[in-house]
Amino acid sequence: MSLESVRAFFAIRAPEIEVIVTEESSATVALAAEAHGVAPEQIAKTICVRAGEMTALVVMSGASRLDNRKFRDRFGAKPRMLGSEEVMAITSHPIGGVCPFGLATPVPVYCDVSLRRFSEVVPAAGAINAAVRIDPDRMAGLTEATWVDVSQEPANGEATF
Fold it and tell me: Residue 50: which of 15, 18, 78 has the closest Cα?
C-alpha cells in the first residue's frame, strides 16, 4: 500500500520521476547509499518527530543528525522520535521506507539545509527497497516543505541514524 501511495503521488504531481525498486534492501543510510551508488550524505533520510503537540517529518542528509538545540530553538520544544507503529499510522510507510511522499495523513514536512549542497538526493519511496532521485528544491516544492536548519554534521566520521 505504501509504495503504491508514493507511485500515485508521483503519477499525479511529477510523472517524469521514476520510483526505483531494488532487489536489495535500502532501509538504512549505508544500504541505500550502496544500492544507489551515492555517498551516504546524498541519501535524504526522513524522520518522524513530535514536539509538543506538533508531529512533523524532517528530511535531512543521511550523514547528518538532528540537533536538539537547533530544533528546540526553531520549534519551541524538544523533538521526540516516534515509534514504528505511530510512524506507520501517520505516514503509511514502514521504518526504512519513510519519505515525505504519498502520506496517509497531512503532516508538515521540513527539509533541512544539509540537503541543499546536492543537485540530486535519494529519499526512500514508501518501501524498504524503493527510492527516487530528485533535486532537493523539487522535493521541497512537491511536498510543500519548509526549509529549516536543524541538523548537525557528525564529528570525525561517526555513524548517524
Answer: 78
Number of domains in the chain: 1
Pick the closest to residue 75 from 160, 148, 129 (CA basis): 148
Asked whether residue 159 is domain-assigned, the answer is no
Alpha carbons 143 and 74: distance in angstroms, whole number: 20
Give the residue numbers spanning the domain of 19: 2-153
Give the Å distances, CA to CA, from 121 to 88, 90, 131.
23, 23, 10
Residue 129 to residue 38: CA distance in whole angstroms: 15
Confidence band for 159, pLDDT divided at 50, 70 and 90: very low
pLDDT for 57-95, tens place per residue? 999 999 999 999 999 999 999 999 999 999 999 999 999
